[in-house]
Amino acid sequence: MDETFPFRETFRLTREQLEIKVIYRTMAHIILKWAAKA
Question: Which domain range does residue 3 map to?
Fold first, then answer.
């Protein structure tokens, strides 16, 4: 059971990094869209 814990921790960390990546990509997309308008 102890062996699954580090794996779950790593998975949770990668999931958080993935969410941050999506947020940054969305923000960049909005900024580019706004820059194209202005």
Answer: 1-38
